[in-house]
Amino acid sequence: MLLLRPPGVYAPQADTWLLRRALQDAALAPGARVLDLCTGTGVLAMAALRMGAAEAVALDASPRAVLAARCNAWLHRLPLTVRRGDLAEAVAEAGDGRRFDVVLANPPYVPSPDRELPRRGAAMCWDGGPDGRAVLDRLCAGAPALLAPGGTLLLVHSELCDTDRTLDLLYGEGLEPSVVARSTIPFGPVLRGRAAWLEARGLIAPGQCTEELVVIRADRP
Question: Residue 184 needs a FRET pair 20 to 30 A away by CA distance; which of 58, 89, 93, 95 works?
């Protein structure tokens, strides 16, 4: 698929395609309403429309990502709604009855030395705080409010962020979570550059150069 991607917008890669595969396996119900958080280029939201979703809304905090997703939707003639926003704004709208059958999320999850998350630049796409969970924990807490009854969250992240914690948090929020896809990949440039720091923090084993990606599906009863 041809995609426009300005500098600073997340390039679709292994986690994107693993999440797309999980979406395909989930088999969207006809007329499903889909929310794509941290949309980047909009590729997953557009995939949902191609799979039969009646409506797809894409959110990203980056102005460049919003522009890219809008351009890509226009390029592929898909009726994608793209807005600048984050999880907090999505949850606020859910309080007014705006809920979705499927919520997709590929949030920033790479452990990073800085406690404060970046507000601009490419690092917005991946920095997730010292344990990688600064966004993930908020997402787990906010997900139930975004889902319609019977709705499904599909969330991708690295094993470095503690898969069991994600499962426990989602279960504690009343959802029914499970790991539905896994893939082991070599470290990319960001993790390679942080390997010594990750090892010193005990987040990876000495000499480790691969990570496991997981997709977690959480269903709202």
Answer: 58
Q: What is the CATH number of the domain that holds 202?
A: 3.40.50.150
pLDDT in tens, 189-220: 999 999 999 999 999 999 999 999 999 999 99
Identify which of 182, 181, 177 has the alpha carbon closest to the alpha carbon of residue 217. Answer: 177
Reduced to 3 states, what is the DSSP secondary structure of residue 175? coil
117, with CB counted inside 10 A (0-12, 13-18, 19+), is: middle
Name which of 99, 186, 178 is nearest 143 in CA terms.
99
Q: What confidence category does residue 157 fall into, taking pLDDT thresholds of 50, 70 and 90?
A: very high
Q: Where are the alpha helices (DSSP H) in the chain?
A: 14-26, 43-50, 63-75, 87-94, 136-146, 163-172, 189-200
Q: Are 18 and 73 in contact (CB under 8 A)?
A: no
Instruction: Provide the residue range defining the domain that includes 124.
Output: 31-219
| pLDDT above 80: residue 91 | no
Which structure tokens are listed for 192? Answer: 């390679």
Count of CB atoms within 10 A of residue 200's CB? 10
Residue 136 lies in a domain: yes
